[in-house]
Amino acid sequence: MALEIVLITGMSGSGKSVALRALEDAGYYCVDNLPPELLLSFVALEKKAGAERVAIAMDVRSATSLPLVPNQLRELRDEGVVIRPLFLDATTDTLVRRFSETRRRHPLSNNRPQAQQSDLAHDRQHALVDAIELERELLGALREQAHVIDTSVIRSSQLQAHVKSLLSAPISQLTLVFESFAFKRGIPVDADYVFDVRMLPNPHYDPALRDLTGRDEAVIAFLRQHADVEQMYGHIEHFLNHWLEPLARDHRSYVTVAIGCTGGQHRSVFLVEQLAASFSLRWITLKRHRELDVG
């Protein structure tokens, strides 16, 4: 059996340690903050030991050697190693808030003594934003080669469940991820395609439907009676039917389709459920509801 490596990279504060714990629970041998210079020799040792599943976390603490990683991954793939890269991301505002709440120092923050730094909170926040944007630039090449997971508004338990579900999908086939979300909480940064369905009839304004979701029969019946909903479903289905094959031929491992409405409870949930059911007949399909999956 070929060695499978899950490579976790991403922004500081985006939840890499949470993802690594999920992989450890799933039976992976996990290594945090492995310097890129040691990657090839480490993999050689694991192959010699007969390892089957390994998870490695790398981040900007190894900034000077991160440019080595893309070529190393190509070399490992040529040797038959299965690489599954995941990149954890979040909005800058979210990352600033997390660093402020935990009082952690960003790895790229200026290391000047505190006494020499401005006492103004605005200046400190500006410096943190600059560090985050520099980190985005340094990690850009790794992000482009990975499946991106947006952790901006999800809980640790949601992230752990999502990582486990992604890795349960077959490696050799494209996996289609449908995600519902609320525009009022921001567009998922991990989406490959975003469809706005806020113009569709809204069950929220019916008191009998307000507390239900797009998975409930009463809401399903309400939405199915509207031609606009059927037409929107048809347009999204036609678009994906046209482009999924080219994406698969381009060796894409995952494609995330995000569908948003105002509250992420009725219309987007309904369409995700219907599309996932239809496309699961041909593709490996996962679904998640960002605003509902809070367990």
Please describe the topology of this protein.
Elements: E1 4-10, H1 16-25, E2 29-32, H2 39-48, E3 53-57, H3 69-78, E4 82-89, H4 92-102, H5 121-138, H6 140-144, E5 147-150, H7 156-168, E6 175-182, E7 193-196, H8 217-224, H9 227-249, E8 254-261, H10 267-279, E9 284-289
Parallel strand pairs: 1-3, 1-4, 2-3, 4-5, 6-8, 6-9, 7-8
Helix pairs in contact: 1-7
Descriptive report:
The two termini are 35 Å apart. 33% of the residues are buried. The longest helix is centred in the last third of the chain and has 23 residues, at 227-249. The model is unreliable at 111-118 (pLDDT under 50). Helix 2 links the parallel strand 2 (29-32) and strand 3. It is globular and about 60 Å long. The protein is an alpha/beta fold and 295 residues long. It is 41% helix and 18% strand. Helix 1 (16-25) packs across helix 7 (156-168).
* Helix fraction bin: 40-55%
What is the residue-averaged pLDDT? 91
Q: Segments where pLDDT lies below 50 for 5+ residues?
A: 111-118
* Residue share in β-strands: 15-25%
The strand order across the widest sheet is: 2-3-1-4-5
Computed over alpha carbons, the radius of gyration is 21 Å
